[in-house]
Structure formats: structure tokens, C-alpha cells
Amino acid sequence: MNAVIQTDHLSKWYGQVVGLNDVSVNVGSGITGLLGPNGAGKSTFLWLLTGQLTPSQGSVRVYGERPRGNPALFRRIGFCPETDGFYPNLTGREFVEMLSRLSGMSRRGARERTAEVLETAGITEVADRRVGGYSKGMRQRLKLAQALVHRPDLLILDEPLAGMDPLGRRDLLELIRTLGESGKDVIIASHILHEVESVTSRILLIDRGRILAEGDVHEIRALIDRHPHRVQIECNRPRDLARKLLEGDDVVSVQVRPAESKLTVQTTRPDDFYARLPETLLEGDFDVTTIASEDDDLAAVFKYLVE
Amino acid sequence: MPIHEKGYRHYEGKRRGRLSRSLTIARCGISLGLKKRGLIAMVLLGVVPAFVLAVLVYQASKPEDFAKLAGRFIYSSDEWRGLVGDAPTVPAIWQVIFSSFLIWQLIPVAVIVTYVGPDLISRDLRVRALQLYYSRPLTRTDYLLGKLMVVGVFVAMVTCVPAVLIYVVGVILSKSIHIVADTWPTLLGIFGACLLTTVVAGVIVLACSSLSRRSGYVALVWAMLLVLSDAAYGLVRKTMGLGWSHLLSVRANVAQVISQIFAVKPEYKFDWFASVFVLAAVVVLAVGLLYRRVQALEAEH
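^ inputs. structure came back:
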């Protein structure tokens, strides 16, 4: 595997706070998802990749080169940061054109390429409006446009979908897939599993500055499946429902909270459990208000892995 | 969002040199600066003294008459003689009036830099633009040079540009190209003085700008620095009568070096080299601070 990114015992501290802790990974070509809850260290990792921060310990290499203080490398990298970084008084077109010229493009080349990426990002219509008046979704698209404008080999996207409308998300994910298929390298950081899962099966799970798992998303899911899956049900007779559910061998335990009319079920075979749940509810004539899986969010996944 | 990026291609156009990156930053800063109406008004006001310079250059074509005029309205006869000698020539007069103009222009320069300078880096810190800049093939030197160019352009608008224009008009009015051979040190002096003013004012205001995300505070710090250094100079001179008291003032030091550039008698008797040393020390300190502060996210954490 040709390593696009190599880190060796990479750590970053902000005073007493650990941003990234002893991370050693090799990231190959194609699309890689960097998954972690807020504050996990995703942005710190990306800032180290883009040379914005100096490692406190260890080393980082992108395409075999140290990114810090290596301007030539940034011709090959397109970075879309989580925060905006725009001048509100400039128009979107002026902003992207300026950044493309900073990448060394000629005036004409920058103008033409800016028009292309603004079209790609779907903001041509608002390109001549001041950025200060842009919505969150438009700003995200503008950040993506500036990251693409100089045709980088590696695209580093920090929470690129945050604040985008569903249509925009779908289109952006499609664009990322297309870039990956055409042989480009993409690192996409997100805290939403299904978004990353829809563009790549290769992920890095990060939490509290440590890489908890890396590899195929299905392997990680299998790892997660070995842990009991929790389902919370709110209904009119929680004790009766608990009794019924415990009759199946897929349920490990049930915790009932009558005062809240709730019960929490732990199951090692969520598929079997969900298959028989509707029948159980209908047979007992239970009046169910909500069914929620506590494990759908990424935080639960990390909790399992940490435990 | 239509997807047109179906295939991926490298950028195959020519890459421009490093200077173009500084120029791009400068162009952006100038464009943002020109959106401030107050700044444009200040520049226009700052050019007004150039009309006086134009009149003086016109008058200087008759050195004898000019000596009388200068002796009556600008300097005492002794002072004027001390500056240009008993038989003043056009080149000698030009040296004096152009240097006086550029020293006088330090006041509008201070005001204009107060308008244009504080935002230059503090705005980038405020909107977190540095991480976008530094994700490009750009070094801190390229970035700072670009920002300094912004200050330079606005400083030049009230110093170099009117002075050079008037110099050219003066040459044309003299009806002799030989005057260029006699007065080229004046032209060089104009560029030298403008460069000195830009570097000193620019580097100090950029260092101030890198200290805060609030440009209002930066403007205050910059203005206080100028006012307090002048006040300290005045206080020390009046109470102690020390010959080197002008070394405490940024403006006085720049004025002293400008006089030296034009080879005219300086206002302060103390060695001009001391002023060079003071300004160099200030610039080195400010550059050191800038390089520490302007390093992407490092400065924020």
C-alpha cells in the first residue's frame, strides 16, 4: 500500500490538554473517513497533516514529506477547514480566485478554474455576492470550492457536511465518491457514521486524541456487535413488556423504570430482537410511544470501544 | 449542485513565482482597504500638502527669489543659508524641500496607517483566515511581505507618488534634461524615504495587529505608541535637555534618517546613526514578534 499519510507516535498537547495522543497510522490511497465525536482530536489531526501545527512528539508525513514549513507540498493538498476563514467584504468569486492565485495559478487560469469550481460547488449564482451574506450551506460549498480550485491530489475535509441541506449533502457525498473513484485521495472528518459510510468503507475511529480502531467499517461494526445493543422503549405497561421480552434468548437484560414508563433492553442479537419486537408488541396490545436505539450514535460506538 | 468534476486532472498551467503570492495578498488587502471610505478621504487629505510642494518646486526654478521667499515664510535667513549655502542651486533647494515634504508627510502617514494597518493581521486572526493561507504554498515571509506591501501602497499614495509626480513636473518645467543629472539624488531620496517610512510604520503596525483580533484595540495601541513616544521625547527634552532625547520618538528618528538620506542638515544634532540603530532595533523586535505570532494555528493555542 502506498501510504499517503504516515504518522509515527504523533502527539500534540495544548499546554496540559492532550489534543492527539501517540497516533501511529498509515493511510493509503482513496477515501478515508476520520470518525470521532466532537472534541475527539479530528481537527488537531488534520491541522497536523496540513502543517498548521507542530507535533509535540512523533512525526507526520504526507506523500513522504513533512508538511510543517513545506509550502511546495501544499500544491498537492486541498484543505477545507471546519471554521470559515472568509473575509465578509469579498465576494465568493474574489475569495476563491485569490486563494487559487496563492497556489501559483496565473490570473487567467485562476479566473477560469474559479468559475469551474464555483459551478461544481453549485454556488455560481451567488458567486458575485459578498460572503458576509452567505448562508451556512453556501459557506460550506465555498470552502469546498477553494479546496478544489488548484486541483490537489489530496483533499482534506474537516466536517464538510455540517450545516448543509440534505440535497447539498447528497451532492457533496457524490462528488467525494467521484473524486475517490478517479484516483484522488480524500480524508473526510465527520462525527456522523452513516455519512462517512456512504462514501468509504475505510475509516479511522478517533476519540480523546487516540485512534481507537482503523480499517474496514464492517469489521468495526462486527466488533461493536459483540457488545450488547441497547434499545429504549417507552410504553404504557413497561413491566409487562419486560416480562414478554425476556422470554426470548436474544435479550441479555432489561431495566425497567416504571415512573418514566420506560424500559431499556440489552440484546446481543439486535437483528433478531428487532424482528420479533413488532409481533410481541401487537400480541400484548402495548401502547408504545417511542422506540430508540441508544447505540445509533457514534458516541455509543466509542463507549463500547473504550470499555 | 451539479457535478461536473467527473474526471480529475492535475493543474497543468504554469505556476507563478513566489513574489506573485505576496502580490496576491497585497492586492486583496488593498482592495479591502479601498472599501473603507474614511481611508480614501484620508488619502485625499494627505495629498493636500503636495500642492504646497508643487508651488515650492515651481518657485525653486528661480533660486534667488526662492531664497527670499523661504527666508521670509519658512526659515529664518540664517537657517536657510545653513541649509542650502550662500549661493543656493536648484538641486540643493530641491533636496531641502522634498525632504521637508516627506518629513511633514509623516503625520498623514501615521493617520493613514492607523486606518489601514490594524485590520491587516487582526482580521485574519478574527476570521481564522490563516489556516486557509497556510494550506497554500505560502511561507510566513510571503504572507508578511504581502501585508507590508499593503501599507507600502497607501504610504506611497501620500509620499512617493505625489513627490515623484512633482519631481517629474519640476524636470519638465526646467526645460532642461540636464537637471535630472543634477537632481537624481533627490529622486533616489524620495524612494529611500518612502521605503524607510513603509518599513518602520508597516512592521510596527503589523506587529501590533498580530497581537489582537480586535482592530480597534490595535489602532489604539499603534496611536498610543506614536503619541507616547513623541510625548516622552518632548518631556525628556524639556526637563533634562538631553541631546539624544529625540531617540525616544519614532517619528523624530525617521525624520532624522530622512534628512540624512537627502544629505540635508538634520533637525537634531545627535549622530543620525543612533537613529538608524534605534529604528533597526525596533524593526527587528517587531519582525521577531510577527514571526512568533503569525504561524497558522500555533499562535492561537
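Confidence is low (pLDDT under 50) at residues 1-8 of chain B. The CA atoms of residues 163 and 258 of chain B lie 14 Å apart.
thumbs up if we can close this ticket
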